[in-house]
Amino acid sequence: MTFYNDIYPFYPEQRTPFIFNLNLLIVILVLSVFAAAFLLILPGIRGKPRLFWMIRIILSLFVGAVIVAVNFSGDWAAGGAKVTTTYKSFSSGVVSADVGLRVGLSGINVTLKGDPVNQLNETIDYNEMFRWTDILDKDYAEALKRGLPNPILHIAEKFTLNSPCGLFYQYRYSGRYTSATMWTAFCCWLIANILLSMPVVLYAGCMMLATGAFIFFSLASFATIQNVPPCIFTVGTVSFQLEFGASFWLSLTIGLLTTFLGVLVVLLDCLAPEALKEAFSMTSGEDDDDEPVLGTAYINHSFLEDVTGASQEQALRQTAKDLTYINMPNL
Predict the structure, then answer these.
(1) Tens digit of pLDDT for each residue in 55-71?
(2) DSSP assignment, residue 280?
(3) Best CA proximity match to 283, nearest among 192, 201, 190
């Protein structure tokens, strides 16, 4: 059905490839603003506490940023290969391209980039996102209507409900529990930071240990996918499998870091509590009951000799009490 010199009256939907997760970008920007704000007030801190305060703030923001960011990242598991395969259905055209698959907590991301990019009079550079929301089959059916290349459709089909691999249930539900425990770890991290600003450093160390524990629970939840037979992705004559990605190993690093910091704080509180309080610029509270330091006082002995009706000792105490208000500094 054409008119006006073979121009189609209805145009196909323009393809907008998945480039970067907007939620992940927002997390990075917000934490960057917080880091910049704390660094701006750093020159106002004097003495040795400046370096310790800077390290503490940077480490705390880094841990919090990673815990939040991995919930929106898409590379908990990854795999890929260089393949030579048919490009689209009902076509004998063969292309050479790099196929990649990344699995996150919210869905999968399939990439296809030609080598070279321009082949068969077309630019081969696809980056498609299939989410776990509702059923991934809806996104797969939409991809079929759009006429995506065969390698992308073949990989996405492995995550549908009717696939014999059963990847949909494995990755969706393991990702759900992983995300839940990660958000719990983030709550523990917030409580630990609040306790660090109070004279209860020991409890802050315990919450850091709880943060590390929940991170390890999330990693264990995602690692349960290894208990089932792995699914092999075959594109053309090349096969590949999924392995743990950057987000998994980064979460493991943060879990070890928070556990180490928690153990360090608990040990220092038991072995060297004074050094720990000094490091966090905390006083023991005993100095609050001390009497204020008085300035130099001069007593008029001739006045004391003329005092009648009271002993010299009582007069001396009364004079010292009066001098407390007269010579007290900064008043």
Answers:
(1) 888 888 889 989 998 98
(2) T
(3) 201
